[in-house]
Design a protein that fits this description.
Length: 311
């Protein structure tokens, strides 16, 4: 299971640690959801997930301010019985003394942030989803081709890196070669990146390792890219039937997400770079509602109907 240190969240969102005697080094966050404990402050704890970060906004703060000191202390005591990672005050709100006392006693970090509540929740959830997303590593090459994230897959030695180099030479950008780290940010979005140790490098058999950033400039590389299309390179098999019309899409499963996959047979004389460019443009056209295979199919049907009416 992925987790992230509370200290990293504090640094990223420029939060202030209000409780000085709580140990934040041992605090980890394991889920991306956060919680505003309005119902909990009123005493309702059914289905309360104590693994979430707790955020006190203006609504919760105003409710607590209306309670007398003894009731407020009891409310915080009951809340802090649950071992959540931290409690965050948005809008720079000053934590109540009753909370400070209970938090210090129970070892619950109290944080403060100047950001508005809604903005803090939105940015925090988005950031945590990326950091805690399910992930896997795939053997392939990831590129940005005309803004489309193209993941080249295939057996070792099939020509993925050589194809990538030609695409880079034609003005497209490299994200990762050989090892692609894939994160599932949502049920619709996969994001790929490269391990730091091999970032910007490509291995070419017969030449060795080349540094794409140094050779082609900073405009030839990119750190992250959504994966929009998979191109599977495979050696030509004369006994295999390949799709020649593209009327229906084939998909590949990556971390539970279905990604469109084009299988490209390789044989001498095929320009793989321009094929990949065409696949990227064709995929974008389909996303925008234009499918050339369907247009051709409709033309054929209309032509048949037209000839039938004449006869």
């Amino acid at each position: 299971m992925s987790l992230i240190k509370l200290q990293e969240i504090i640094d990223e969102f420029e939060m202030t640690v209000v409780t000085q005697n709580t140990d934040i080094t041992s605090k980890d966050v394991m889920i991306s959801e956060v919680n505003r404990p309005g119902l909990q402050l009123a005493g309702f704890y059914d289905y309360f997930n104590q693994d979430r970060l707790q955020i006190i906004g203006m609504v919760e703060y105003t409710y607590l301010r209306k309670l007398d000191s003894a009731r407020r202390a009891e409310t915080f005591r009951k809340l802090c019985e649950h071992k959540f990672p931290a409690i965050i005050h948005s809008r720079g709100l000053t934590p109540f003394p009753e909370l400070m006392e209970v938090a210090e006693e129970r070892g619950v970090p109290v944080l403060s942030c100047e950001t508005s509540t809604s903005e803090l929740m939105g940015e925090l959830i988005r950031w945590l989803r990326v950091k805690l997303a399910p992930r896997t590593t795939m053997h392939g090459v990831l590129l940005d081709v005309f803004g489309e994230g193209i993941l080249l897959l295939g057996e070792s030695g099939v020509g993925k890196s050589e194809t990538a180099l030609e695409l880079i030479h034609r003005g497209h950008r490299l994200v990762a070669d050989d090892s692609v780290e894939v994160k599932k940010v949502s049920n619709q979005t996969l994001v790929g990146t490269c391990p730091d140790i091999i970032r910007y490098f490509i291995e070419l058999r017969g030449i060795g390792i080349i540094d794409v950033k140094q050779m082609f400039g900073v405009e030839s590389v990119k750190d992250t890219q959504t994966i929009d299309l998979v191109i599977q390179l495979e050696l030509w098999d004369k006994n295999k039937e390949y799709d020649r019309l593209g009327t229906s899409d084939e998909f590949i499963d990556i971390l539970g997400n279905q990604v469109v996959c084009n299988r490209i047979p390789i044989r001498p004389g095929r320009n793989l770079a321009i094929i990949c460019e065409s696949a990227a443009i064709n995929h974008r056209q389909k996303k925008m509602g234009y499918n050339s295979a369907h247009v051709l199919s409709q033309r054929v049907i209309d032509n048949i109907n037209s000839n039938s009416s004449i006869h």
